Amino acid sequence: MSTTKNTYTFSRRNFLRTSAIAGGGIMIGFNLFTACKPNVKPSVDIENLNFNDFNAFIKIADNGYVTIYSPNPEIGQGVKTSMPMIIAEELDVEWDKVHVVQASLDTKSYKRQLAGGSQSIRLGWDALRQTGATAKQMLVNAAAVKWGVDAATCKASQGVIINENGDKLGYGDVVKEAASLEIPENATLKKPSEFSIIGTNAINVDLDEIVTGKPLFGLDYKEEGMLYASVLRPPAFGQILESFDASEAKKVQGVIDVITIGDKVRSFLDKGKSNWTFKLSGTDKVVVVAENTWAAIKGKKAIQAKWKSNKELENTEYQNDVLNKILDGNKFDIRREDGNVKKAFAQADKVIERTYHSPFLPHNCLEPMNFYANVTDEKVHLAGPVQTPEYAAIVVADMLERDINEIQVDMTRMGGGFGRRLYGDFVYEAAEISDKLKKPVKVISTREDDMTTGIYRPAIKYRIAASIKDGKITGYHLKEAAINDNMYGLIPHFFPAGCIPNFKVSTQNYKSDVTTGAWRAPYTNFLGYAEQSFFDELAEELRKDPVQLRLELLQYVKGTTDERIQYSGERMENTIKLAAEKGNWGNAKEGVYQGFSAYYSHNTHVAEVAEVELKDGLPVVTKVVAAVDCGIVVNPTGAINQVQGGVLDGIGHAMYGDFSFEGGKPINKNFDTYRLIRINETPKVEVHFIQNELSPSGLGEPGLPPAAGAVANAIHKAIGKRLYHQPFEKYLNSEKIEG
Amino acid sequence: MPTYTLKINKKSVNVTADADTPLLWVLRDELNMVGTKFGCGISQCGACTVHADGTAIRSCQLQVSMAQDIEITTIEGLSEKGDHPLQQAWKEVDVPQCGYCQAGQIMTAASFLKDNPNPTEQEIREAMHGNLCRCASYNRIEKAVAIAAEKMS
């Protein structure tokens, strides 16, 4: 036994959130102040949140089993599995001894408990590793103290610490001592080559519960004495409540009360407290409170309400007209400008200009919006599915004029997010209702509520023009006309920015009464299609292979000193080459037509080859091959699932998503009149990852933006028709094409 | 409100509910069996799929007053230990993303495989097309149904 005096002392001075837990074991909290300082700003504005420090809780039982609290909301993007994997890797435990628990909102212990922008993994990476590595170091130090040896002579692996004499201690044997040690700075991280969990397939941690129907989701959440509330909102955007008659509703069996809400929202807005998650207008709403969901739904149908508006309500034709006028006009914000586009266009051999049109889109999370609130004198308890729990707490505290410390937010698993649950309107409604009733209540939405009172992907039009001179693209001008807002600040610096000497991005919007917001891969979900479809036309014009054209363009951006450029020319090039290779680009079988697309978004580079075949004279997408560079792939099975889902989501909405308004009212109200892609319409999606050791970026969104472009380009090859409008299906069905 | 006797997962249960209450809401609100999900309420999404005498139906369309004398099976009763070949296959393939639709998918598949134990790929795609998956985990659903069919044969 070594006699080296160890330098670690058991002290309470650095005690941090250490507590004995029922059933044995101990919980350690790590307060890591400098763990994560991302050197690149995230690619969307909503992500510009504080993320300087980060905590995670690890609970180690006496028997060595480990509980890891997953800090971020789980919306189907897989972070409840992948974030704990990163901690477990550095902690160095066996993954099958890890139990994952969803953490509640705890702004003192965690930072950026938010699901959005595909940023959880990218921004969590360093801090999660530090958390695991620090805990491991503390466990090693504790064992060293116990043995009376230098910690540097001890090693830990798979939950067991071993010293030079071959003595062994399990993590569970020293966890109590470890928790009271000084927290070491800069614990050593593993090299990627030493990873044994990261890079292996870990199935969804909630899989057992999902396939057996256990309560997991917000709609499954129940508390004793909980009532159900259904909210009647204005049927048209731009309307407010004039009057209502609840006498029939009150006759419905199970209906307890009919109330109105709106005061708290108005006073909140009057105080100027609004933030980006707050999309509620100040209208009164009628709320039916009932003993059960069915009574609440029935009661709401029985309300006779009158609505009014003091201006003309919007139709889709009007919205299209306004957007077209914006594109035809000359009032734009210049978002990026390189060289002199005007001059390039004037000197060109040819200028090609195309306009791309997209409709509004509802999110249609399969779990309709819902939230639980229980407002009492002591505290405000909120529970349910929301992507922005921290904002939920802040807004509710302000709305109800409560101390933020009185707000408790518990997160349930979410039946989809897609951006819809970034906005906490349903949380704020639940809080106001419970505040008024002083009873626990769950706000529930029907599909019709969700689809017709949504926060939609705004309708957008892009007009893209390019100049060609001596067989080269000399100028490029992208104009965006959108509803309510324009593309996020960094998007003008995505591919192909930096590839074309004279380059300009101009944007403008008009303010509509229709509420709009982020929808999976905001802006790029349609911009990716428009630009990648346009490039196919440019390649045709230049008589170049579409892959070759992109690779040539990327040569200009490689090694760029322009710090605004968000993507890497080298990584994009490698991704494009991998997609072309794996997708057998240019070597399609007889009767198979290929289309290519490549796009960078959310810090991830993606390229896709789509294959289309003609069936009964109509083009059918049969296969998509995607190549992805997201750095290290934390959980391959989850990563593949995300990319497959993103690709199919992109194709599904481009093919079928159609949503319009008449007199301010959505025409499409449920899945009988709004078409989502179904299993018999889906191609096989093959996913390949670039192998490297770069820090990981997210995958919830980036698979989506290139998908529709690849499909549109393949359809053009199959039938010779360019598609400028989404949904494609509407424009393809107009005439049957003979194959 | 009237009381109804239902046979759910081989157990007889009494529930008090308005006659027109869909079975879906009786299961979820009255019986705390929340594995059966609400997605659309008009039988378009399949999230609420249960078995009625072994056949997949939409529980949002079956009123409680009409549900007596029917053997109802929900996801909670599909297998005793959560080890139905479909549940196993779902885990092998790691199907879900958000997971919300999956109980309904499994219930549709279970009924389908009983009638057609050796389905072709196209038959699986046709049989499952009534169930929406908003995350589009469709490639994996297709694969898992095929694997379960193999396990059962």
UniProtKB/TrEMBL annotation, chain A:
<keyword id="KW-0472">Membrane</keyword>
<dbReference type="InterPro" id="IPR037165">
    <property type="entry name" value="AldOxase/xan_DH_Mopterin-bd_sf"/>
</dbReference>
<dbReference type="InterPro" id="IPR006311">
    <property type="entry name" value="TAT_signal"/>
</dbReference>
<dbReference type="Pfam" id="PF20256">
    <property type="entry name" value="MoCoBD_2"/>
</dbReference>
<dbReference type="Pfam" id="PF02738">
    <property type="entry name" value="MoCoBD_1"/>
</dbReference>
<keyword id="KW-0812">Transmembrane</keyword>
<dbReference type="GO" id="GO:0016491">
    <property type="term" value="F:oxidoreductase activity"/>
</dbReference>
<dbReference type="InterPro" id="IPR000674">
    <property type="entry name" value="Ald_Oxase/Xan_DH_a/b"/>
</dbReference>
<dbReference type="InterPro" id="IPR012368">
    <property type="entry name" value="OxRdtase_Mopterin-bd_su_IorB"/>
</dbReference>
<feature type="transmembrane region" description="Helical">
    <location>
        <begin position="15"/>
        <end position="33"/>
    </location>
</feature>
<dbReference type="InterPro" id="IPR008274">
    <property type="entry name" value="AldOxase/xan_DH_MoCoBD1"/>
</dbReference>
<dbReference type="InterPro" id="IPR052516">
    <property type="entry name" value="N-heterocyclic_Hydroxylase"/>
</dbReference>
<feature type="domain" description="Aldehyde oxidase/xanthine dehydrogenase a/b hammerhead">
    <location>
        <begin position="212"/>
        <end position="314"/>
    </location>
</feature>
<protein>
    <submittedName>
        <fullName>Isoquinoline 1-oxidoreductase beta subunit</fullName>
    </submittedName>
</protein>
<keyword id="KW-1133">Transmembrane helix</keyword>
<dbReference type="InterPro" id="IPR046867">
    <property type="entry name" value="AldOxase/xan_DH_MoCoBD2"/>
</dbReference>
<dbReference type="InterPro" id="IPR036856">
    <property type="entry name" value="Ald_Oxase/Xan_DH_a/b_sf"/>
</dbReference>
From TrEMBL, chain B:
<keyword id="KW-0560">Oxidoreductase</keyword>
<dbReference type="InterPro" id="IPR051452">
    <property type="entry name" value="Diverse_Oxidoreductases"/>
</dbReference>
<dbReference type="GO" id="GO:0016491">
    <property type="term" value="F:oxidoreductase activity"/>
</dbReference>
<dbReference type="InterPro" id="IPR001041">
    <property type="entry name" value="2Fe-2S_ferredoxin-type"/>
</dbReference>
<keyword id="KW-0479">Metal-binding</keyword>
<dbReference type="GO" id="GO:0046872">
    <property type="term" value="F:metal ion binding"/>
</dbReference>
<dbReference type="GO" id="GO:0051537">
    <property type="term" value="F:2 iron, 2 sulfur cluster binding"/>
</dbReference>
<feature type="domain" description="2Fe-2S ferredoxin-type">
    <location>
        <begin position="2"/>
        <end position="78"/>
    </location>
</feature>
<dbReference type="InterPro" id="IPR012675">
    <property type="entry name" value="Beta-grasp_dom_sf"/>
</dbReference>
<dbReference type="InterPro" id="IPR036884">
    <property type="entry name" value="2Fe-2S-bd_dom_sf"/>
</dbReference>
<keyword id="KW-0408">Iron</keyword>
<keyword id="KW-0001">2Fe-2S</keyword>
<dbReference type="Pfam" id="PF01799">
    <property type="entry name" value="Fer2_2"/>
</dbReference>
<keyword id="KW-0411">Iron-sulfur</keyword>
<dbReference type="InterPro" id="IPR036010">
    <property type="entry name" value="2Fe-2S_ferredoxin-like_sf"/>
</dbReference>
<dbReference type="Pfam" id="PF00111">
    <property type="entry name" value="Fer2"/>
</dbReference>
<dbReference type="InterPro" id="IPR002888">
    <property type="entry name" value="2Fe-2S-bd"/>
</dbReference>
<protein>
    <submittedName>
        <fullName>Isoquinoline 1-oxidoreductase alpha subunit</fullName>
    </submittedName>
</protein>
